[in-house]
Design brief:
The chain is about 45% helix and about 20% strand. The longest helix has 28 residues, at about 65-90. It is an alpha/beta fold and about 280 residues long. The relative contact order is 0.14. The strands form three sheets. It has a five-stranded mixed β-sheet with strand order 4-3-5-12-6. The radius of gyration is 24 Å and the shape is elongated.
């Protein structure tokens, strides 16, 4: 390979970040450099290539056809390098499998099943990151994530895992007292943002609904069982309450695009991540 054919790697990194993030400012923040430095690198790259690679589009940056071609090549090339170095690091030092999850999914779906994975794969240590916030898999060194939504996140691979299976419940007495649940009291767990997203999508909660946020799902369920209002839970968590009649179903998740998805890096998975994803598929 003739290195004279390859422009400055600093310039290529600056352009790849700008193309991926569609913003000079965000690219500068991601690379921890100044906005001016990113602009200078792109101008130098355009001068060396003899063509325009980017153009302004509103408040962001759009790519010319030449820029799109270079951006795709850099994404493929840097992705291959990242995958190879990540695999080598994992082979040369012990590192747990890092899995980002929503708190609700971790508590209600993953943890009751995880013991089986540890039995089958005692050699794989797992570090769980329960948080409602989205993570950047590459930047945050996360091997995979499990997220609630429509599966339309960019620059990652998406695979459907399970339906949400949410139910809105209350005591039979509360339901009889609240012919219009939209204006009845609701309780939502602060970390479990997917519950409130689903409730609004189903038009169960609107801007005029009195909603009380509590720090944990357990407190929400206790408030609901006490008859204080409506709440949302994975059906498996309240199945026994429904069977006994202490809670009744007001609304249930229908088949739609909102599910829990496995989110993995676009440039491939480590062997540990592959084993975990295969186990998740079997559980689903």
């Amino acid at each position: 390979m003739d290195w004279n054919d390859i422009p400055s790697l600093f310039a290529l990194r600056a352009f790849e970040a700008t193309a991926r993030l569609e913003s000079l400012t965000t690219a500068a923040q991601s690379l921890n450099v100044t906005h001016a430095a990113i602009s200078q690198h792109i101008r130098a790259l355009e001068a060396e290539m003899g063509c325009i690679l980017t153009r302004r589009s509103g408040r962001g940056i759009a790519l010319t056809p030449e820029g799109q071609r270079l951006a795709q090549a850099l994404s493929d090339g840097f992705g291959t390098i990242a995958a190879a170095t990540r695999e080598l690091r994992d082979q040369t030092r012990e590192r747990p499998l890092v899995v980002a999850i929503t708190p609700a999914f971790g508590e209600n779906w993953l943890m009751p099943r995880l013991g089986k994975f540890w039995v089958d794969h005692p050699e794989i240590q797992i570090s769980l990151l329960p948080s409602p916030a989205l993570v950047d898999l590459r930047r945050d060194r996360v091997d995979l994530a499990i997220r609630f939504g429509k599966g339309d996140w960019p620059d990652v691979k998406i695979e459907k895992l399970v339906r949400a299976n949410f139910v809105a419940v209350a005591t039979p007495e509360r339901i009889s007292l609240s012919p219009d649940p939209e204006t009845a009291p609701w309780f939502i767990s602060t970390p479990d943002i997917e519950f409130s997203q689903w409730a609004r999508m189903m038009h169960l909660i609107t801007d005029r609904t009195p909603v009380t946020e509590l720090p944990t799902g357990e407190l929400v369920l206790s408030a609901c069982r006490a008859g204080h209002g409506f709440s949302i839970h994975p059906r498996a968590l309240v199945e026994s309450d429904i069977a006994k009649g202490t809670l009744a179903v007001h609304a249930e998740a229908a088949e739609d695009a909102h599910c829990y998805f496995i989110v993995t890096p676009k440039d491939g998975m480590t062997p540990k991540a592959k084993a975990f994803v295969q186990w998740l598929r079997c559980c689903a």
